[in-house]
Amino acid sequence: MIYDKIENIDLYNIDESAVEFIKNLTGDEECKRYEISDKIYANIEEYQTKENGYFEAHQKYADIQLLLAGEEIIEYTSLEGLEVKDAYNSDRDIAFFYDASNPVIKLPLKQGFFALLNPQEAHKPQLISSASCKVKKVVVKIASEN
Predict the structure, then answer these.
(1) 43 and 63 in contact (C-beta within 8 Å)?
(2) In 3D, which of 84, 87, 88 has the Cα closest to residue 97?
(3) Which of 79, 83, 101, 113 falls between 20 and 30 A from 11, CA-CA?
(4) How do residues 54-75 score in pLDDT, each as one tens digit?
(5) How many alpha carbons fall within 13 Å on the CB side of residue 113?
(6) How far is 84 from 89, CA to CA, in rounded Å?
């Protein structure tokens, strides 16, 4: 997991086309799927933050998550020890998990910051930060080298 300011994104070994897409975002983009390359795409979506959710993890894609509007919390924990809620769905590249007694890191995601979550890293996005709000989020999906 990487959590940093977008202005520092060049410090990390992230595919150039993904970084270029992120740097060119204006906030006015339409909510839809954007094809960046044969191994990278982005989803832009809007939703209301929520009080609770489930941990999720991927196998094929890493996520770069950043907000164009609003703020949210992403919880991060070890995948080890989590109980499966919904088994891995290879078509959607996602599995869901119940909370466990694992230590949890709370990442305050707001404009100007990003989180990079690698495959097999459990995370719970879309959570309320200070108050429930509407967010506009970009999730860039980068195919894993595995």
Answers:
(1) no
(2) 84
(3) 79
(4) 999 999 999 999 999 999 999 9
(5) 13
(6) 12
How far is the C-alpha of 79 from the C-alpha of 50, rounded, in Å?
22
Residue 122 burial class via C-beta count within 10 angstroms: exposed 0-12, middle 13-18, buried 19 and up: buried
Instruction: Give pLDDT, residue 20.
Output: 98
Question: What residue type is assigned to position 11 of the chain?
Answer: L
Beta carbons within 10 angstroms of residue 137's beta carbon: 21
d(CA 142, CA 41): 7
- Give the model's pLDDT for residue 36: 98
DSSP assignment string, 71-115: EEEEEEE-STTPPEEEEEETTTTEEEE---SS--EEEEEETTEEE
DSSP character at residue 50: B
Edge-to-edge strands, sheet with 71-77? 84-89, 94-97, 55-57, 122-127, 71-77, 105-110
Helix, strand, or coil here: 7? helix
The helix (run of H) or strand (run of E) holding residue 37 is strand 33-37
Cα four-point dihedral sign 17, 23, 24, 26: positive
